[in-house]
Amino acid sequence: MAPHTKVAIIGSGPAGHTAAIYLSRAELKPVLYEGMLAGGTAAGGQLTTTTDIENYPGFAKGIGGSELMDEMRAQSLRFGTEIITETITRVDLKSKPFRLWREYEDADADEPAHTADAVIIATGANARRLDLPGEDKYWQNGISACAVCDGAVPIFRNKPLVVIGGGDSAAEEAIFLTKYGSHVTVLVRKDKLRASKTMAKRLLANPKVTVKFNHVAVQVQGEEKARGLMTHLRVKNTVTNAEEVLEANGLFYAVGHDPATALIKGQVDTDDEGYIVTKPGTSYTSLPGVFAAGDVQDKRYRQAITSAGSGCMAALEAEKYLADLEDDEPTLDKEQDAKKPESNGDTAPEYRSNPLL
Ligand SMILES: Cc1cc2nc3c(=O)[nH]c(=O)nc-3n(C[C@H](O)[C@H](O)[C@H](O)COP(=O)(O)OP(=O)(O)OC[C@H]3O[C@@H](n4cnc5c(N)ncnc54)[C@H](O)[C@@H]3O)c2cc1C
To answer: Coiled coil: which residue ranges (predicted)?
Structure first.
């Protein structure tokens, strides 16, 4: 028989660990699968791929991305979360309890490695890259996939910056970056923007922005030393094939993200971009007992703090779901129910059984 837990968390970014902290403090003994280079990212998620985090509250001097995730992991462990360093490669969310298979232990077996009454999906998303020559060398040394996260760092202050992309995100990021850079060039592969009319108008009207239509990036250039910074970008006109080198101390990709939802495809509702659909303002997915938190269900904010916040919501909602399941069981412990304090009416009835509130 596969080991059974009340709740399993899949994913190890801020959403997964926040859910684990809340659930373990509520003594629900969660199991968290942190992944073994799941989707090419180390356990700990996207923040392990970056250096300083300056916008996560509580760290006035900033904190390293990996250091922040090590702290979250330690906090999950401290309250009794069981962390398993494996990737979940298959789930059966149609059966009750839910069934989970691990990549190495039993990927092809009939019996799953694990069963759970509730599952929290916190598998995150990955920013698309372009695989340009020079990209690996200058990643995080000038190249970023998140203007809101990195725009304010000193290497970009009063420097020429480039954004790649033609959609709303690219327009928003470019306008945001005009606060910091001396000028922002936007490279758009086609002859028009995909952004909404309002965003496009705002972008084109900004005196600190130049939009280069029919242009793609071909090579990132920069200092030839360890941790050297990018300084230039070679670009190509897709109509004439003419190339030129732009001065650029920052390069921001706004070419989309891929939510890590292959695992649940066809079992839980996703939108046309693959993000898990949650009921607005909650972590509820289309399947009762399955909750989603973090970037896997959020294509708008995509921040560590919003992921952590939604991890908290998923934990509280999973906890309520589990309490309701127990209430429905014929073996309900009536004695324990009788011991519950009477509500004084101050607490919302649906959260009365939640020990955290
Ligand atoms: C370069 C960079 C810099 C950033 N800087 C900032 C910043 O300064 N401030 C900020 O607020 N945000 C920043 N962000 C955004 C932030 O990292 C994300 O919003 C946040 O990490 C999302 O958290 P998450 O919990 O949803 O999942 P993720 O961080 O995406 O982590 C999910 C992880 O779960 C694991 N996993 C996935 N699938 C499975 C599976 N099947 N089984 C087991 N494990 C699995 C993987 O390790 C995966 O990476 C940055 C992002 C990037 C890429």
So the answer is: none
